[in-house]
Amino acid sequence: MKRFAFLLLLPSLCGCYLLTQARGQIGILLNSRNIDTVLADPSVPAETKVKLRLVRDIKAFGESELGLTPSSNYESFYDTQGQPITYIVSACPKDRFQPYLWWFPIVGKVPYKGFFAKEDAQEEASALKEEGYDVALGTAAAYSTLGYFSDPVLSTMLDYPEEELVVLILHELTHGTIYVPGSTDFNEGLASFVGWKGALKFACSRHGIASEEYDRTARAFAEEKQLDAEAQELFTKLDDLYKSHLSLDHVLSSRERIAGAEVNNAKILMERRYGRYDRFQERFEKAGEDWRRFFESVRKENLNLKEPF
Length: 309
Hints:
Elements: E1 6-8, H1 15-30, E2 33-34, H2 35-40, H3 46-65, E3 76-78, E4 86-92, E5 102-104, E6 108-110, E7 113-115, H4 118-130, E8 134-140, E9 142-144, E10 153-154, H5 162-175, H6 184-207, H7 212-242, H8 248-259, H9 265-273, H10 277-286, H11 291-302
Helix pairs in contact: 3-5, 5-6, 6-7, 7-8, 7-9, 10-11
């Protein structure tokens, strides 16, 4: 199953990057249409309207059943014309798991940088490669502005099957509920857990536990957990190698034997960032599997995180 890439992107940055991102964000805001208007438009395909109504149901479910913070997100629609909404770049040294960090106001240090223009992302990626970093360049299914703007439903979101769309919407709404500046791994891990566990609850509530929809969601989540376990195992093996104090040449040759010629620390960290479901499952069970108690405990324990999660 295709894994999601989720991006947190704010336009309140600095310099040329500010101008470029602000222009892209303004374009999205100006060209978004209210969902009621879209639903009333006879030229809009019926399948699009079905998915938009589904998004509304997912959002309402997340707010009422999971206790996610109500917002004005996903009340409008933006047509991306089939193109990714944004591109993300991340980087990491080849001999250690120490992500390259960018600092932005409000969100603090983050291990990735988002671009609306593919060319800008490619330029950033090329510069980092020239500096000797492992670099990952990909696209994001969605991004959150943490309530600074009303995030629209993107046309590309509607291409996802129901279970993946549920995960995506709940994931992004979680960012608007709890966000710890400078703690990206915690933020993304939490949102991923809420997305998948919430999707199971949504499928059960909407279709029943014996339904095909619930079965698809459960199988997709099982695949995600397997991918997560594999990512954790690979991370551990390579981390042990990187901490062995061996020569750089030995480390670089050994990491290829462990992970293959295409080994890329930036990609490994990205995979790891959106998982570790077992750690949140333990907290969820400790809260009696009550969502509001879970979020309350997470807020109390993690709003002042000092160490990487």
